[in-house]
Specification:
about 130 residues; alpha+beta; two-stranded antiparallel ribbon; 4 helices; about 30% helix
C-alpha cells in the first residue's frame, strides 16, 4: 500500500485530489502524519545544513516540512516532494537564497531579502 492509499483509507476527509490537476493536498491528521514521516525519513536532521531538529507532540520545533516543487507549481503533499528543513534554511529559501550553496548565495539578487530580516519576521509572528 502506498503512502497516499494509506492516508486515503485512514483519513478520507483529510485527503483531497484535484479533479483537473490531480494535485494531492493533505490536511489535519493526515498532514501531521506526513510531517512525522518526513522527519523520521530524514533522521531528524535538516537536509541542507545537517543540524538536528525535533518534533514534539505533533508540532515542529525548529523543523519545517518543505516542498521540493512548490504547491503553486503543482507540487503534491506527498513524501517524494517533501524534505526536512530547519527554520534558518527554510527562511533563507523563501527569501530567495539558494540554501544548497551556503547561506549567502542567492537565486536572484534582485528578489533576495536579507536573511536576518526574514528570520526576525518569523520570530515576530511572520
Amino acid at each position: 500500500m502506498t503512502f497516499l492509499e494509506d492516508m486515503q483509507k485512514r483519513y478520507p476527509r483529510h485527503v483531497r485530489i484535484g479533479k483537473v490537476t490531480g494535485q494531492v493536498r493533505l490536511s489535519g491528521p493526515a498532514y501531521e502524519e506526513l510531517r512525522e514521516y518526513i522527519w523520521s525519513r530524514d533522521h531528524g536532521k535538516c537536509i541542507e545544513c545537517g543540524c538536528l531538529v525535533v518534533l514534539e507532540k505533533g508540532y515542529w520545533i525548529t523543523m519545517h516540512p518543505a516542498h521540493i516543487k512548490s504547491k503553486g507549481s503543482g507540487g503534491d503533499d506527498l513524501p517524494y516532494n517533501m524534505r526536512s528543513l530547519c527554520l534558518r534554511c527554510h527562511a533563507a529559501e523563501h527569501a530567495g537564497k539558494d540554501v544548497s550553496k551556503g547561506a549567502n548565495a542567492t537565486r536572484n539578487d534582485s528578489q533576495a531579502l536579507d536573511g536576518v530580516t526574514v528570520l526576525d519576521g518569523i520570530r515576530d509572528g511572520f
